[in-house]
Write a structure and sequence with these properties.
Number of strands: 30
Helix content: 25-40%
Structural class: alpha+beta
Shape: globular
Largest sheet: 9 strands, antiparallel
Strand order of the largest sheet: 8-9-10-11-21-15-14-13-19
Radius of gyration: 26 Å
């Protein structure tokens, strides 16, 4: 999807280059492991489509947390990308030495609040870590305080074989960096801060001992020298804080902790103490929305389509309910509708934290569109509207910082307040906001007066850019964009003619034509449709090779950098991989032509490209499809990489993380993405629709059951025990020494990926409707005849 080392395009050649750090030495401090099994935040009700105190849920809590390997990891306060904690582990002194969560334990993630069918009703978790040697078990119950900026933890330690002494080891990363912190430790609490942001960890009783120390060599456990707490009462810089709990000879002991956030040590301490005073049971009940309280259960109950959507699942609806929670959790609580890509920093355990990094905790309009459409598919009438109203925040115009060029397009990646991060032009990201507005209008949720207003403010400038392009002048980017040639396609690494991008552009222009007609601007509407016709007429001539290297030589390519799909011109190198000829790189992007209605599913060019996409006999470098079997589950389940020759993943030769040490390596290899299993399921449904229509019938139950058993079930099997769907899953190719993976298990890329959850939910809605949710009827009526 996107690389961690920001991908830029050289203005002269339009080739991708990776910005690497000057030094490949081990970072002094990093972020945490990115394969999360739990993420959470409080449910906050909108007040007139915005977030502010005083609504049905009271004060707005702005705290998010994550869990990986059984460990509390990145915890955010303020804006959704502003991490304040790297991780907090429980270390245990045993008769055999020091043992630490993650490294020396196994982990299990469960939901605390479920319905009678076991479907989660809130993102509150029970995390159980078990010592591999069987000496102890630690149970943590984790959720936020919906009325305060605080995280609540109930920790139970069970001694199984001899005495144990537990320690809390907290690594602050205040103000979204791993340095420049100030910290203090005492029996009453642990405090850390930077600038005007502080946290305080308080317990329901004093600590036995506490200490603060500078972090040395990125090893927080040095504060526990042989199980003895060492350090001082204060520390500065990159720091670690630790607290010793009483020794437990046998049995179990339970402790309540709260981490409060505020503008100073006093405020953060008061917040933590207020949560502890309210107490575990009441804070959890408010978070869940039990009884008359308004919380997560109320949000789930508001999703009118969720029961019908969940009925299409193969797991009883568990992943569908979890996916609904995941999408709503990953929305900022200051900027309503700001939907991010993931509450994670991919390959974070080797990513330098000396400078601020949002990772995936940012807005990409493409991922954003997927999430808003999935929430709409669930019957959430509020969040997609808030998302649509948010979009001008990330559209380029006269007020965009640093912009001196053409406007109307949407920024590649931004912080949730609209601060630009990456400034490549991706034409699908300019089309999708138009498509979302059209969908909400046709659902009857976006009023005509509102849509007319946004036509002038946002949609017309976007559609005009899709027709005319223009000279961009912002940051490094000084290119002249000539649509439908995109500066970056959906994987953000290459310029050219892309089937997936072109599909979105055509759909965006046709739907913009409808909106222009509504607004009384018929001339623009006609222009948009005429341009879409011209783009559609050249889809095959630009992107379908008839002299390719694979199969029968006739198939859609991932990308073409000119008007000739048969000249075998090289596309650019990216992520440490080679620069192959255009006909040696295939992906499933052409299926988006079917999804949006630009081509029929039985179109000969579409159907003729499937064998090359699905060929499992090619060597791994050029192979896209991998099939998975899972223990105890009958059948094989398909998965696809982004494209062949993809280097956005762990190193197949060394097992190292992507971009480790700030450098690309030729062994890097992109893995299988669950998204594409959903995309293929959508294609199979579209094909079934067409066959049924030709026979003047409806898609049969047997066809739906087959898609459910193959594609829906596959995505559910790719999810982890916390019901989170990864960005990438391990395909079994090459070394995995750092994190020994089971085939089909999520890698260290990004979990949960909002787009993965969105694609899953949209597939379920499509099956429930017996038609593709993202299909745009005016597009299909025009081209997919």
């Amino acid at each position: 999807m996107r690389t961690l080392k920001t991908l830029i395009l050289a203005a002269s050649a339009l080739t991708a280059a990776v910005a690497t750090t000057a030094c490949a030495a081990e970072p002094a401090t990093t972020w945490a492991y990115s394969a999360k099994t739990a993420v959470g935040a409080s449910y906050e009700a909108y007040v007139d489509g915005t977030y502010k105190d005083g609504g049905r849920t009271g004060a707005v809590s702005k705290v998010w947390f994550s869990v990986a390997d059984g460990v509390l990891t990145e915890t955010m306060y303020g804006l959704i990308h502003e991490a304040q904690i790297k991780q907090m582990r429980v270390a245990v002194k045993t008769a055999d030495g020091l043992v630490v969560e993650g490294r020396d334990t196994t982990a299990k993630t469960e939901y605390l609040y479920t319905d009678k069918k076991g479907r989660p009703l809130s993102p509150a978790y029970k995390i159980t870590t078990t010592d591999k040697a069987g000496r102890f078990v630690i149970e943590k119950r984790i959720f936020t305080d919906p009325d305060r900026n605080a995280l609540f933890l109930r920790v139970t330690v069970k001694a199984l074989k001899g005495p144990v002494t537990p320690f809390l080891v907290l690594e602050p990363h205040m103000a979204n960096t791993g340095g420049n912190d100030v910290g203090s430790a005492g029996a009453q609490g642990l405090t850390a801060g930077e600038g005007k942001v502080y946290l305080t960890l308080r317990g329901d009783r004093p600590f036995a001992k506490a200490a603060a120390a500078r972090l040395e060599g990125n090893d927080a456990l040095k504060i526990l020298d042989g199980g003895v707490l060492e350090g001082a009462s204060e520390a500065k810089g990159a720091i670690v804080l630790a607290a010793q709990l009483p020794t437990l000879a046998a049995g179990e002991a339970t402790y309540d902790f709260a981490i409060g956030f505020g503008a100073d040590p006093g405020a953060s301490s008061q917040t933590a103490m207020a949560s502890l005073k309210t107490g575990y049971a009441e804070v959890l009940a408010r978070y869940n929305g039990e009884g008359e309280r308004v919380g997560w259960a109320d949000y789930i109950a508001s999703l009118s389509e969720l029961p019908r959507v969940a009925a299409q699942s193969a797991d009883g609806g568990k992943l569908a309910y979890a996916s609904a929670l995941m999408l709503k959790v990953q929305e900022d609580r200051t900027h309503a509708g700001a939907l991010i890509a993931s509450l994670s920093n991919p390959w974070g355990d080797t990513v330098d934290a000396a400078k601020p990094s949002t990772g995936y905790k940012a807005v990409w309009p493409r991922d954003f569109y997927q999430c808003a459409m999935a929430l709409a598919a669930l019957g959430d009438k509020e969040t997609p509207l808030a998302a649509f109203h948010y979009l001008p925040t990330v559209q380029v115009g006269p007020k965009t910082p640093g912009n001196k060029g053409a406007g109307g397009w949407f920024l590649q990646k931004t912080e949730v307040d609209g601060t630009p991060e990456w400034v490549g032009v991706q034409l699908d990201q300019t089309a999708m906001p138009i498509m979302l507005g059209w969908k909400l209008w046709k659902l009857g949720w976006l009023s005509e007066p509102d849509l007319k207003d946004y036509y002038a403010r946002m949609i017309k400038p976007a559609a005009d850019f899709l027709v005319d392009g223009g000279k961009v002048n912002i940051g490094w980017n000084h290119e002249t964009i000539v649509p439908p040639f995109t500066q970056q396609e959906r994987w953000e690494e290459q310029a050219g003619h892309s089937p997936s991008t072109t599909a979105a552009v055509i759909a965006g222009l046709v739907t913009a034509g409808d909106i222009a007609d509504l607004a009384g601007d018929k001339a623009s509407g006609d222009r948009y449709r005429a341009t879409a016709d011209a783009y559609s007429a050249k889809v095959e001539a630009r992107m379908f090779t008839t002299s390719g290297k694979f199969g029968d030589g006739s198939y859609f390519m991932r990308l073409n950098k000119n008007e000739d799909p048969n000249d075998k011109a090289p596309i650019g190198a990216a992520n440490g991989q080679i620069a192959p000829p255009e006909d040696e790189v295939v992906d499933g992007g052409f299926l988006e032509l079917v999804r949006y209605g630009v081509r029929r599913a039985d179109d000969s060019h579409i159907a003729g490209s499937l064998p090359e996409l699905d060929d499992t006999a090619r060597e791994d470098l050029y192979r896209v499809r991998y099939d998975f079997d899972f223990p105890g589950v009958k059948g094989e389940f398909p998965g696809w990489r982004r494209y062949d020759v993809d280097g956005y993943g762990e190193d197949a030769k060394t097992g190292g993380n992507y971009g480790e040490g700030g450098e690309m390596s030729p062994g890097q290899r992109g893995r299988v993405w669950p998204i594409f299993t959903g995309e293929r399921g959508h294609y199979e449904l579209a094909l079934a629709q067409e066959k049924a229509a030709a026979e003047k019938g409806k898609v049969g139950k047997g066809q739906i059951d087959a898609i459910r058993a193959r594609y829906v079930k596959a995505i559910e099997l790719f999810a982890n025990d916390g019901l989170l769907i990864p960005e990438q899953v391990w395909d079994g190719v090459g070394a995995d020494a750092r994190h020994p993976y089971v085939k089909g298990e999520g890698t260290d890329s990004a979990t949960p990926l909002a787009w993965s959850h969105a694609e899953y939910l949209k597939l379920l809605r499509s099956l429930a409707d017996r038609q593709v949710w993202d299909r745009y009827e005016p597009v299909a009526a025009r081209y997919a005849k």
